[in-house]
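I'd like us to work through together how a protein chain folds, taking it slowly. To get us started, please write out a protein record for me. Go ahead whenever you are ready, and we will take it from there:
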Amino acid sequence: MTKNVRVRFAPSPTGPLHIGGVRTALFNYLFAKKHNGTFVLRIEDTDQNRYVEGAEQYIIDALNWCGLEFDEGPQIPSSEGMTKESYRQSERKHLYKGYAEELIASGNAYYAFDTSETLDFHRKDHEAKGKTFIYNWHNRLKLSNSLSLSADEVQAKLEAGDDYVIRFKSPQDETLHLQDIIRGDIKIDTNILDDKVLFKSDGMPTYHLANIVDDHLMDISHVIRGEEWLPSLALHYQLYKAFGWESPEFAHLPLILKPTGKGKLSKRDGDKLGFPVFPLQWTDPKTGDVSRGYKEDGYFPEAMVNFLAFLGWNPGTEQEIFTLDELIEAFDLKKVHKSGARFDPDKIKWFNHHYMQEQDNDVLAKAFKSAHPELEPIDVNYISLVVGLIKPRATFVSDFWELSSFFFAAPKTFVEKAAKKAWKDDTDAIMKEFVSVINNIEAESVEHLQTVVKEWITNKGIGFGKVMQPLRLALVGDLKGPDLFQIMFMIGRDATVRRIELAIDSI
């Protein structure tokens, strides 16, 4: 790749960042780093009516949590004199009007003074006739704009302060051949395109104009964005041509689909099926409603990144576990699929379970302890040893208590089904004798304890199940848990004896 790679992730601060947006940011980040390029964060806040307080910081926090640190953005200006405000479109609005007027001067755009009532009338009239109203070549000379009005009439309206928009003048009877890295050659008949609004009389550009101007001024080489922007591709290509600018290369990522595989994934799907669709928890500043986040639900950022990378991309190998550096090395836009990617909530749990095994036990122990006040008096080093034994069965830190409570306190009850299976008529006598054996063991290690116990069972000539099953029931309260000798060694001889005696008395 000969040109310097510069990509941008350009979300709107209208609420929390959907995981589809995180996937878009991830693919931009991977592409930039693969080609030693620059990853830019730009906040597209031209629609001030939809602006939500706190959303911009949420976006930044979400990217940072995922490890997708941007090279330039609102908090990290570039080295070329741009300020942090330069990455917010609302702070750059003084730039856009001049570019809109340049398009008017070149004949590629025009003023339109149609009122909302007039446009609404035309829409309803077309609907009544079974048609769709499109503002373009076939009717623009019949409407109120600078193509149908005289220069003096246009000037008079502008001087009078009449509301207006600036529309792009779509060509007639042309076929556009557009290139997309993922989708290849795309043909568009210009006769079906409408004359999109580029600028409004309130001084704010629409997304279409602002994003083209910003991409040009920021030297963006590749625009990697969601499939939902594919219908805008024709206009954006034409804008570059109208300005006489070199167009960036485009790549439109596939949609993230519902778990059923039909339709785009939404927050409602997550609420219905019990999984988050946002990276971090979000509290709506107006309603106070709280939406779940993957971080707060106990997912590791590595799991989220690894999972999202496979939503629409595949390395072409059997490998599924990738570090961020490995993803950078393997990533290729040409291996991104065209078709939608089904969201599988069980698959991200699978990734989380894997990354759980790679977490430092001491770090997990601190998180476990902070979540359970009853562990406050327990030495964190002991908790860390427990975590090392149970985490192979855990997907989240929130699973730890159920998997390990018996390491910290004797079971208060015994599962009835397990008790019927493990405790037979001769169990009381066997376990009382076993207590006397335990009382005489000065175990130096788990292995020593295991050797002594197994020798006793062998010498007694009874099946291992007759001892080990009721022993597990006594220590755990159920027939589950890690290695029994690990449990016995960890809780100590005295606690082991007390629990066996409690089981004898209770069952």
Remarks:
- The longest strand covers residues 175-180.
- The first helix runs from residue 19 to 34.
- The mean pLDDT is 94.
- The chain has four domains: 1-75+254-358, 94-200, 359-407, 416-506.
